[in-house]
């Protein structure tokens, strides 16, 4: 079975020129199939007052500068943007990218993450409890997919999302934009089972990721969905100092059934960092030929 590798560049504490250079390098290296930004409005690492670029705006710019790699936000916080507006933004980016978008979404940071929470207060955004955000995520996934596919306006009288005369035009370039949903909680995994094409979990505890993947299998069975329809994705940090450790972690994840590997790059980016990822991690990690 094919294994895809991608990179992630969290757009905090870094310049646009640096990001542009890394993404253009990735676009020219066939072993790297996808690239990702993150969705924070203020830094969650390093200088708390340092620069952070808005994810979807930046993604549109990088989509216009690339031609091959698939791209997305790992992952969009459903708390930041109304779902219908997010569907419009995503369809626009897919048009700019010529049909290369992979749509990543999640419930947003938990209340116990004060570094992340401050960005909501700083931008006047509501911060509901986790149960509310997960329930809202389920409705958002339904609404977004319908806006991408329904050929007539519709009303949506949800508990968390209310729309009247909703209609998406233009549609995405892709007949079906892959939807990646990230998270490990039981509640989020039930949303994954119903809506996701790809499920992502942070690496670091492979045993937990395997356990959560098995739980996802169970939730799929409960609703009559084939668990194999959902690609398993894992995020792993790339160590420029110890690439063999990253290669080993990627190989173990592949052996455990994860077929979508996202390697996080830390700024400042060493020269040729994406080439190093391809040569020192992708090569020899068990990557299958499609």
Overall mean confidence score, pLDDT: 95
Relevant CATH superfamily = Luciferase-like domain
The secondary structure category is alpha/beta
- Total of helices: 9
Strands of the widest sheet, in order across it, are 3-2-1-11-10-9-8-5-4
- What is the CA-atom radius of gyration, in angstroms? 18 Å
Describe what this molecule looks like in 3D.
With 290 residues, this protein is α/β, with parallel strands linked by helices. It has a single domain (4-282), classed as TIM Barrel, CATH 3.20.20.30. It has 9 helices and 11 strands. The protein has helices at residues 16-27, 55-65, 83-97, 114-122, 130-149, 186-195, 206-223, 243-255, 273-282; strands at residues 4-9, 32-37, 70-73, 76-77, 103-106, 154-157, 162-166, 179-182, 198-202, 231-237, 260-265. Strands 3-2-1-11-10-9-8-5-4 form a 9-stranded parallel sheet. A two-stranded antiparallel ribbon has the order 6-7. Helix 2 (55-65) packs parallel to helix 3 (83-97) and helix 5 packs parallel to helix 6 (186-195). The longest helix is centred in the middle third of the chain and has 20 residues, at 130-149. It is globular, with a radius of gyration of 18 Å. The mean pLDDT is 95.
Task: Fill in the keyword field for this structure.
alpha/beta, 290 residues, two-stranded antiparallel ribbon, TIM Barrel, globular
Task: Set down the secondary structure blueprint.
Elements: E1 4-9, H1 16-27, E2 32-37, H2 55-65, E3 70-73, E4 76-77, H3 83-97, E5 103-106, H4 114-122, H5 130-149, E6 154-157, E7 162-166, E8 179-182, H6 186-195, E9 198-202, H7 206-223, E10 231-237, H8 243-255, E11 260-265, H9 273-282
Helix pairs in contact: 2-3, 3-5, 5-6, 6-7, 8-9
